[in-house]
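Hi, here's the filled form for the chain we discussed.

Project: internal
Contact: R.S.
Residues: 287
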Amino acid sequence: MDYTYIDRAGKLAAYLHDLKKAGKDTIALDLEGEFNLHQYGEKLCLVQVYDGKDAVIIDPFKVQMHHIKRFFENRSILKIMFDASGDRAFMYKNYGIDLLSLLDLQEAVDLLEHEKSDLKSVLKKVLKIDGGMSKKKLQRYNWTRRPIESGAIEYAIKDVLYLFDLKDRLLPEIIKRGLLDQFILRNLQAQNKPHVYGNTPKLFESGKFRSLIKDKQRIFKRLFEIRERYAKNLNLPPNSVFPNDLLFELVEGGTRARDIKFGKRVPERVRKRIIEDMEKAIWGSGR
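And the returned structure, exactly as it came back:
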């Protein structure tokens, strides 16, 4: 599959200049990221663009984020996306970047009440395009790898390659059914929605955590922070240090710190330090 690989700010500027010179003010856009699956934390790993003629891959590991910010926040470029809410939240939460001038085709699919609303199913139903490659096959792909495998690049580009055609099929149907005003409103509401993100880990909002007595909640938070600190230092997802369930077992007394089954990537010397810190947190609480 032919595409342009942009790994320098100058290349991105030249591409955007060529778009403007050609009078192209609409692109299809998608992102790939790392979400505490292979490494610690969340990070943007890939930007896929299709302008109706050429496919482009932007490498955010090589192109500084302020250049990508200028691109994403450019109101003069209409960005066709599919289910943009997650990407919009991810970019603002992690980089303070607001995806502006979006046309989210997910809103059209929802208004038209498709039985299956994921992109692969919609492409198959509306455009008779079978992606062939199972999403599950690359769902857990490590997008932080360089170089990126050619099959993964092809998979990523396919998420933008058909968005122009999909728009041209969905919008006439939206108009035909008298839903255009609702479609416009939904897109505007999504983009005008304020960015409000709490710092409380999701685990602390679970029913299992809330069912703990206050003293055990405090111990749990200390253990969570210890695991978080070591995960960050090792650049590992916290669950790769040891899983969430063990945090609850430690607090409830079902498992001792010395009996923790650590992930394979946790060095032996580090395991000993984690155990020591965990025991101090547990027994220092007076339990």
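Let me know if anything looks off before we file it.
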